[in-house]
Amino acid sequence: MRFLLLLLILHISYSSAARAISEHRALMAVKSSITNDPRSYLSNWNATTPLCSFTGVTCDHTGRYVTSINLTNFNLSGTLSPSFSHLRFLRNLSVAVNQLSGPIPMKLSALSGLRYLNLSFNVFNGSFPTQLSQLKNLQVLDLYDNNMTGEIPVSVTELPNLRYLHLGGNYFTGHIPSSYGLWEHLEYLAVSGNELNGKIPPEIGNLTKLQQLYIGYFNTFEGGLPREIGNLSELVRFDAAHCRLTGEIPPEIGKLKKLDTLFLYANLLSGSLPPELGTLKSLKSMGLSENILTGEIPESFAELRNLTLLQLFRNNLQGQIPDIIGEWPELEILQLWGNNFTGSIPQKLGSNKKLKFFDLSVNQLKGPIPPALGNLTSLTDILLFDNELTGFQKTFRKHDFVRDIAVSSPSELPATPAIAPATAAITPTTAAITVNLK
Asked: What is the pTM of this model?
């Protein structure tokens, strides 16, 4: 009996050692696929260094198995080795912000416990491996800013636990599948910066836990925004800029009470500004510029007291600029240029103590400039040309920058700059992922 017990102990010890060696050899194979490591981050990936002391490698509490590999921003070149598939206890894998190329190995599908996969900011090419749909525990999949091609993958909808999906910044084609509305837990969806077309499926409105949605930039959708967008009650950021949307802004957007960022600029949206936008009291940034919107700024906008950025330039808006804009305490950037606004500048403008950039040029405004604007210590740029306004020198005598802008004739002025709002769709997602893995 003792002899049998001893054999069992020896067998377990040998099996554990064999697995550890296997993982060690797997990582050595991973290193061999790296052709350039200019900062020598992987210099201690060698035969004499313990596996769990490798740079970027984390093991479980026993010290036997690799559970996490983070090679983010190592400036590595080469390919992604299929040997990762031998790390069967791996939960998290990030090789983001490198120069890795070639296809994504289909053998990664063997990592059944993988929850986090970040391959963003590389030059991976080829189509999305359908085999990765076997990663049923995956919660984060980030492929942003690569050279992926082919149809936008449908197989990702077979990943039931996804909470974060970024496919943006590639060359995917085709329509957004209606099955993209099936995820129960999805909080972040980005397909921006591809070559997608067709209509935006109304099924997107089924993603009731979605907090961030990015669908614009280089995509060319047909039609407008589906009214079902209004069902996304948890949505905080929505960016559908620069993707040839037509039609009117659906009033159902007013149902998105948690929204703090709304970018629909550089489209072909028409009609008036929906009064329902004024119910978005959490809104901080609203960019609706470069469309063909008409009508006046609704009085309901008085409720937008958290706005820091308002961009309505290059539309066909008209009427007077309402006094309510002067009552927004957080406003920093106001761009209304290139419209048909008439009347005078509201006297309350200048109460916005945080105002930095102010552009009402190329309208039909008349009369004196409100004296309060001259007292704004945060103001760095003001553009008022191509109007019939008076009082430049008197109002801005304390501001040196006005000498080059406000008192010059329109023919001598540079083209009006447009401040493009930064969007999460084009910023590094390695720092943006806030999903807590469960």
From this structure: 0.86
